[in-house]
Design brief:
Chain A is mostly beta strands. Chain A has strands at residues 4-5, 10-14, 19-25, 32-38, 45-51, 56-59, 62-67, 72-77, 86-93, 104-105, 109-114. In chain B, 0% of the residues lie in helices and 52% in strands. The chains are: A mainly beta, B mainly beta. The A-B interface holds A 32, 34, 36, 41-46, 49, 51, 89, 91, 93, 95, 97-108 and B 4, 6, 31, 33, 35, 42-48, 50, 55-56, 58, 90, 92, 97-101, 103-109.
């Protein structure tokens, strides 16, 4: 059973507009969340993260929102730029796990920025 | 600062053979984890090494193994290759174990094709 779900395999947004990528999780033990961006033939690149003690984290054009009660997080990109076209992965981990449980990833959303 | 280096970038093997993949983490990083990416299953955690010890393992058969050397470099081995092992194998390094806020930096991966 998928513990981290990204229900939109792809998303098309016009350049300059806001891109909103969504992610849902089921495991209550997850308390740290990360977003990665991936281009073809490259490894994932870290974008932004959020701890469960916060409900929002901003870094430049990227903002992540966390709704713990709904077990939902979203990544907002404003304004969207052509270079943002990539696959975006949501990942989760029990922060305080001590031992390494590894990141649990969603299956990704392919964001396409239209000129 | 050099990133995470994975070798080789591409590999073609025959069913039944074994393969060894290599990962050199960022200098000073002591934790190395491995992930498998396939179109059907997405990114899945294989295992993580810290101080030359495997700290946790994902849900993969015993044909998948790894090790870490005293300089933190890591290798993973897959024995008795199956067609379904064809995937992109990604290595991620982190400064410490189990502290997600330190971040995980991924390499570009090794593309393994089993024929």
């Amino acid at each position: 059973d998928q513990q981290v779900k990204q229900n939109s395999p792809s998303l098309s947004v016009q350049e300059g507009r806001i891109s909103i990528l969504n992610c849902d999780y089921t495991n209550s033990m997850f308390d740290y969340f990360l977003w990665y961006k991936k281009y073809p033939a490259e490894g994932p690149t870290f974008l932004i993260s959020i701890s469960s003690i916060k409900d929002k984290n901003e870094d430049g054009r990227f903002t992540v929102f966390l709704n713990k009660s709904a077990k939902h997080l979203s990544l907002h990109i404003v304004p969207s730029q052509p270079g943002d076209s990539a696959v975006y992965f949501c990942a989760a981990i029990p922060y305080s796990g001590g031992g390494a449980d590894g990141l649990t990833f969603g299956k990704g959303t392919h964001l396409i920025i239209q000129p | 600062k050099a990133g995470v280096t994975q070798t080789p970038r591409y590999l073609i093997k025959t069913r039944g053979q074994q393969v060894t993949l290599s990962c050199s983490p960022i200098s000073g990083h002591r934790s190395v984890s491995w992930y498998q990416q396939t179109p059907g299953q997405g990114l899945q955690f294989l295992f993580e090494y810290f101080s030359e010890t495997q700290r946790n393992k994902g849900n993969f058969p015993g044909r998948f193994s790894g090790r870490q050397f005293s300089n933190s470099r890591s290798e993973m081995n897959v024995s008795t290759l199956e067609l379904g092992d064809s995937a992109l194998y990604l290595c991620a390094s982190s400064p410490d174990l189990g502290r997600a806020n330190y971040g995980y930096t991924f390499g570009s991966g090794t593309r393994l094709t089993v024929v």
